[in-house]
Records
---
Amino acid sequence: MAAQACATHADRVAIYQCDGCAKPLCADCVQASHALFLCRLCGERAIPLGGVGPATVKEHAKRQRLSRRYTLAQAFFYPFRGFGLYMFLGTLVSMAIVEFAVRFGIGCFPFLLAIAFWSLMVGLQFKIVDTTAEGGDELPDWPNYLSIGERIPDVLAYVGIAVLQFAPMAAYFFLVGPQQLLTDDPSLLYWIGFSTFGWLGSAMALVALGAAGRFGPGAALRVDLHLRAFVAAGREALVIANLVFVLGITVWVVRLALRAVPLAGAAVAGTLGAYWIFTSAHLAGLLVRRNAVVFEELYD
Ligand SMILES: [Zn+2]
Ligand SMILES: [Zn+2]
């Protein structure tokens, strides 16, 4: 179809056509209403031509968000940005309360509280993936507290992702035997093998989290699709997988080192844990956002 010129601006390509006066309209000749774009000439609805222009104001806002430049370095400030910072602080306080209740509480109530809280955290991670894939750069609000129908599949998918995360390491232990790790001095080769398999699990879990968060819990265990998505995303998948792996190891090592420090150590360890949870989910969402075509073709 040949490009049509705007009825008012002959030098501009029309990307809408008015549903009322039927005139071709450029981006300047439509105005955003509450939800739709309207013709500036007669006020009727402007329909996007050939699927080029955004059909709704929401779609327009999404495109704007997606076209904004956003680097991987910026992703590391994700939990502290804008309104998300309050979510991050609120999560830390909730984590402390749950931890305190489990440690000093009596009866089974604290454990029910912990289960409820952590299943919500799982839902929040999937929501982070989804809102990130949609172009969001700030922490979203909590998922619906009472939606048990959503929480259970989410938690099952999360368990599946955890299995993918640790399966390669378990296979390594099975192949090489765990003895080496129990001796004082495992060889360098052993550590290289260990980190390679650890990296594989981390990369697989990254893609699985991205897929499940974006396309629903059912996508979590599609290892075949995860592999294809990883290969198709190429260098980008490699870079993000490396970032998530190094971030995970750093947080794990620091948390281990902080075990000896009472209270302050626990506070820093908790903060780092929450930071890791949010940032790795955001990076998984970014992988999907930057490779939207690949992911949609495979999982949708
Ligand atoms: Zn019109
Ligand atoms: Zn125009």
---
Amino acid sequence: MIHNKLIQLARYSYWDKEIGALIVDAKHLKLTVSQRKLLGLLVENLNRPVHGTLIFDEVNHSLDKEFNEKSVRNLISSLRKFAPMIKIVNIYGGYYMLRKDSMYPDLEFKDYLYEVLDQSKNAIVITNPNEYDNPIIYVNSAFSELFEYTFEDVMGKNCRFLHDDDIEQLAIDEIRKAIQERESITVNLRNYTQSGKILYNEVTISPIFDKKNGKLKYFLGVHKDVTFIKTLMRQLSSLH
Ligand SMILES: Cc1cc2nc3c(=O)[nH]c(=O)nc-3n(C[C@H](O)[C@H](O)[C@H](O)COP(=O)(O)O)c2cc1C
């Protein structure tokens, strides 16, 4: 039986809020004092972003010490290494967030569906608009191949990292509007792979609704690399 002083963070992983301990597979993990303070703060703010300065203050308990971002980053990575089952995501702007696995209960839905998606030749991404900043909750293998990012690299991030700081694109405004209005859209974007290669991406984004209650559940993105068409068009136009 699970007592309510235990908060589940991931499969077989719990935070004991009474004594501030991490329990994995029924064993207490020995955290350092700083790791324990950090995790305690993140658990208090489960699924909400916490700014690095707050973490720094919590860990140092001395307000006159100057904020040191690197020490926060090091502490986060030490905790990630020590307890890899815990999902701490970085959020743009110096925030960190502890994500609870069971936020994705629906992703346990039918393994066979995963297999189908995973074998699709089109790159596919699924996001959860009911969570902060519409994070990615699934990408298939074709997505990883196309953009050179693994599932772990992108999990929990908003898709905007794909256009990086190349934001002067009308298509981005169109997507923002379509998402707000919960409509589907097909646009062409300049995106970038992990290694920095430019990629012309024709993406179709569709809202997915729960048929029973009409609530918005996900967004589905299907991506097509149209770089070769762009290149061809450029070559053709240079012939004239
Ligand atoms: C399912 C889905 C797929 C998306 N795919 C891409 C993509 O492939 N490339 C991209 O640059 N932006 C993509 N976006 C758009 C960004 O996530 C974001 O919505 C866009 O940058 C506008 O919002 P912003 O102004 O908050 O950045 C996608 C969004 C969703 C919901």
